């Protein structure tokens, strides 16, 4: 597993749909962003299977859109994007 994604623990599923599954997670180690445990930064982790029939562009394109919007109010910050096994992952 990629060392970056290993810094987070999945806590619960938020939902799933045609474009993958989204979970709530928290930092478990590494970095200095608001500690670890219950004080740790809460994030959304999106997992989209590479064989997904919904959209060929998937999270890589979604990440580009978030970055282009550049921290506008209500737009999530992408901390990580990459591949884990058969999934594209975005945190």
Overview of the molecule:
It comes from Gossypium darwinii (Darwin's cotton). InterPro entries: Kinase-like_dom_sf, Protein_kinase_ATP_BS. Keywords: ATP-binding, Nucleotide-binding. The protein is mainly beta and 91 residues long. The protein has one domain: Phosphorylase Kinase, domain 1 (2-Layer Sandwich). Helices cover 13% and strands 37% of the residues. The protein has 1 helix and 5 strands. Strand 1 and strand 2 form a beta hairpin. It starts with 7 loop residues before the first strand and ends with a strand. 15% of the residues are buried. The mean pLDDT is 79.
Radius of gyration: 13 Å
Class by alpha and beta content: mainly beta
Output the helix-strand order: EEEHEE
Spans of at least 5 consecutive residues whose pLDDT stays below 50 are none
The CATH superfamily bears the name: Phosphorylase Kinase, domain 1
C-alpha end-to-end distance: 15 Å
Give the % helix.
Answer: 10-25%
The best one-word shape is: globular
* Overall mean confidence score, pLDDT: 79
Q: Strand portion, in percent?
A: 35-45%
Q: Within the largest sheet, what's the order of strands?
A: 1-2-3-5-4
- Write the CATH fold name: Phosphorylase Kinase, domain 1
Number of domain modules = 1
GO molecular function, one term: ATP binding
Keywords: ATP-binding, Nucleotide-binding
InterPro entries: Kinase-like_dom_sf (IPR011009), Protein_kinase_ATP_BS (IPR017441)
Protein name: Protein kinase domain-containing protein
């Amino acid at each position: 597993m990629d060392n970056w994604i290993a810094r987070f623990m999945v806590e619960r599923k938020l939902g799933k749909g045609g474009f993958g599954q989204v979970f709530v997670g928290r930092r478990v180690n590494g970095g200095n962003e608001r500690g670890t445990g219950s004080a740790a930064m809460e994030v959304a982790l999106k997992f989209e299977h590479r064989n997904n029939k919904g959209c060929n562009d998937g999270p890589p394109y979604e990440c580009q859109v978030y970055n282009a919007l550049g921290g506008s109010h209500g737009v999530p910050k992408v901390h990580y994007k990459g591949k884990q096994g058969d999934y594209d992952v975005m945190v």
